[in-house]
Amino acid sequence: MREAAVAGNMPKQQRRSFWLKHLHQWHWISSAICLIAMLLFAATGLTLNHSAQIEAHPQVSSKQAQLPKDLLAQLSAAEHKDKDALPAPLKTWLDKQMSVSIDRQTGEWSADELYVSLPRPGGDAWLRVDLGNGKVEYEKTDRGWVSYFNDLHKGRNTGTAWSWFIDIFAVACLVFCITGMFLLQLHAGNRPVTWPLVGFGLVVPLVLAIVFIH
Q1: Rounded distance, CA 58 to CA 123, Å?
Q2: Which residues does 113 contact at the CB level (< 8 Å), separation at least 6?
């Protein structure tokens, strides 16, 4: 606000130079922040649009183990509600014995078994513990790097940190686009095709949506 007030008291040419300087600064900073992620989202936009033509080869791996008797007795004796978190001793045992990391996922508890769904970008996994005999089963499906990056694009099963990143990236993109629009306006006098090109970028997707999408 203070900068805008200062600019309002300047002569026209000086005011134009002021805004050009600040708009260019915000434009290049936001473009630098967006660059790598924009390349990722553009590339995965193509792979998502042609997902039917990109053949996936899921790799399925499984593990089995047996719970120690004392840990099984502890699980069987405790009362658990559906969607309860896993006890810390069980999570520690799974991590050490099966290399299965359970973070904040909750389990589906019943009288007979514990089932944990472990969705992840680019694949899925699940864990089952038989509360009667202590048998543990784990299965993981990996659909490859293309599916992994496609899920990053969609924010599918990516967690809170990636969700925050997408929001911050979106704000940086808005700054990049808005400052670019003002820069176009400042340079439009010397570039007659500026607004026809902007209009073309608006009209083409609008016509396609109206005519071809039902």
Answers
A1: 8
A2: 128, 129, 130, 131, 132
User: Residues 6 or more apart from 207 whose CB is under 8 A from it?
Assistant: none
What is the distance between the alpha carbons of residues 96 and 188, in angstroms, rounded to a whole number? 64
**Residue 199 banded pLDDT, cuts 50, 70, 90:** very high
What pLDDT score does 78 carry?
79
In 91-191, where do the E strands start and end?
A: 106-109, 113-117, 123-130, 135-142
DSSP 128-170: EEETTT-EEEEEEEE--HHHHHHHHHHTTT-HHHHHHHHHHHH
Structure tokens at 204: 């083409």
Return the ∠ at Cα 99 (arms to 72 and 112), rounded to 5°: 30
Q: Which residues pair with 137 in a beta bridge?
A: 64, 128
What pLDDT is stored for residue 8 in this prediction? 55
DSSP track, 178-191: HHHHHHHHHHGGG-
Nearest alpha carbon to residue 166 among 153, 178, 179, 157: 153
Compute the distance between CA of residue 107 and CA of residue 87 in angstroms, rounded to an integer: 10
| First vs last C-alpha separation in the chain | 45
Residue among 59, 68, 34 nearest 178 (CA): 34
